[in-house]
Amino acid sequence: MDHTMFTYEAREQTLVIHLPKELDHHNCRNLKSDTDLLLEENYINRIVFDFTHTSFMDSSGIGVLLSRYKQMAASRGHVSYYGAGTQVRRILEMGGINRLIKGYEDRESALKG
Amino acid sequence: MGSMMENPRINKAGNGREHIRLTMDSLSQNEEFARVVAAVFMSRLNPTLEEIDDVKTAVSEAVTNAVIHGYGSRGGVIGMDITADTDGSILTVCIEDQGVGIPDVKTAMEPMFTTDESGERSGMGFSFMEAFMDEVEVQSEPGKGTLVSMKKFIGR
After folding, report:
1. What residue spans define the domains of chain A?
2. Is the pLDDT confidence value at B1 over 60?
3. Which of A28, B52, B103, B121 is the most exposed place for a label (fewest CB within 10 A)?
4. Known catalytic residue at B61
5. Topology (CATH level 3) of domain A7-112
6. Could you read off the pLDDT of A58-112 as tens digits, one per residue?
7. pTM (2 d.p.)
8. Which residues contact B80 (CB under 8 A, 6 or more apart)?
């Protein structure tokens, strides 16, 4: 699987967004249009972010996560994440994401949480 | 070129200032490239993994700002200047553009402030630079461009 870009999994009412290895402005450019399309085509009430293959993230990633959170919050949906490594965890903490979105160790917990 | 020939930097093993300067197109695909260059260059200061991550993140923020805001649709170039002071273990990274400039630097550097209207930008770029580097200075003038100078004291 190519981890240089986003990949998506829509199952039942959950959208899993597999984040790329480098979650920066360049790679985030299309996230909004991709997810808007998926949210239009499917009834989604839960978004789960998969950081398993993400080794770097900066504030661009914070921006897109917050936007998706606001979208879900507006429709009473739920957002969670899993698989965050050391660098990612620091950025998520600094960006205030943990106050809004809960992080899990693995996919199964994130899907249930 | 002439001044380089007249004043060659003499590097006696481990002493003095080591320096690189490069110029790149103001394109988002160069954000990663800039991070990698900074990370590799700073390794001569024997940083921890966390210090490398810190610098990569700060560089990413500064270059991203230049790419997004610097030239609008015109395109342009971004200069990156890195100095490793091996005596004092200090890394200095300067990112500059000759683009639109920032009208009010103080306001621009406030946490969460962004001029982006898409709703996708967090406005945390400068906050992250200040959190991860020990000194951050921004010089900018509308119509002239922007220079972000950052220092990190490695091993302290």
Report:
1. 7-112
2. no
3. B103
4. yes
5. Transcription Regulator spoIIAA (3.30.750)
6. 999 999 999 999 999 999 999 999 999 999 999 999 999 999 999 999 999 999 9
7. 0.91
8. B21, B22, B23, B24, B34, B37, B38, B59, B63, B93, B94, B95
Test B31 with A26 for CB contact under 8 angstroms. Answer: yes
Q: What is the pLDDT of residues B21-67, one digit of tens each?
A: 999 999 999 999 999 999 999 999 999 999 999 999 999 999 999 99
Question: Do A60 and B64 make contact, defined as CB atoms within 8 angstroms?
Answer: yes
Q: Which residues pair with B145 in a beta bridge?
A: B141
B124 contacts on A by Cβ (under 8 Å): 59, 62-63, 94-95
Give the residue ranges of DSSP H helices in chain A.
Answer: 25-28, 31-41, 59-74, 86-94, 107-112
Whether residue A56 and residue B35 make contact (CB cut-off 8 A), yes or no, is: yes
CA distance A65 to chain B (A): 9
Taken in order of first residue, the domains within chain B and their CATH numbers are 18-153 (3.30.565.10)
Tell me which of A3, A22, A25, A97 to substitute to probe the interface with B (most B C-beta atoms closer than 10 Å).
A25
| Residue indicated by tokens 């199964």 | A108
